[in-house]
Amino acid sequence: MKRKLLLCLLLSVSMAAFSQGYRPMPDRERELDKKYTSGLFSQTDADYFDFETDPTTHSAIVYGNVLDWLQGRVAGLQVYTYRNTKIPVIRNRPAAIYVDEMRMDPGFLNVLPVADIALIKVMKTPTALLWGAPGGAIAIYTRHGGNEEEPAEEAAS
């Protein structure tokens, strides 16, 4: 009887532990991923913040630095100030900052207007180690100009 009870308990605990890992990617995140990211940045295990269509991100405009807005919204992210520069730290390790998939110094975010940001993707996975960022990476994508379709020219007959 004890074995059956222990086996049931072990089975239910293991099912609960392993069912937490996979989360299907929502359609909007998949669309943003396809539109902005490429290569190693197109991994799906990340926190997405859509600044184009999500009304909950409009409050970020009042912040001088987008890292201040992200703090408290991303689990494990802390922002420290060192010599007037905000330094992102994820899970007690420094995180890399990429703007349009180019590595940037954290001080660059002081001059990047929040209104120009289209997407923020916070990656906390070990694959960020490939980029020399043990704490993960914060990828910031700016709005692309000229997204409107140009009118089709009529062919002269």
Topology:
Layout: H1 2-18, H2 27-36, E1 47-50, H3 66-70, E2 77-82, E3 85-90, E4 93-94, E5 96-99, E6 102-104, E7 117-123, E8 137-142
Parallel strand pairs: 5-8
Antiparallel strand pairs: 1-7, 2-3, 3-4, 5-6, 7-8
Account of the 3D structure:
There is one protein chain. The protein is an alpha+beta fold and 157 residues long. It is 20% helix and 24% strand. The protein is built from three helices and eight strands. The strands form two sheets. It has a five-stranded mixed sheet with strand order 1-7-8-5-6, covered by helices on one side. Strands 2-3-4 form a three-stranded antiparallel sheet. Strand 5 and strand 6 form a beta hairpin. The protein is globular and about 65 Å long. It starts with a helix and ends in a 15-residue tail after the last strand.
Along the chain, the helix and strand elements come as HHEHEEEEEEE
Number of contiguous helices? 3
Mean pLDDT: 78
Assembly form of the protein: single chain
Tell how many strands the DSSP assignment holds.
8
Into which percent range does the helicity of residues fall? 10-25%
| Shape field | globular
Beta percentage is 15-25%
Query: What order do the strands of the largest sheet run in, or round the barrel if closed?
Result: 1-7-8-5-6
Whole-number radius of gyration? 21 Å
Structural class estimated from helices and strands? alpha+beta
Strand count, sense and closure of the main sheet?
A: 5 strands, mixed
Low-confidence parts, pLDDT < 50 over ≥5 residues? 147-157
For the terminal residues, how far apart are their CA atoms? 88 Å
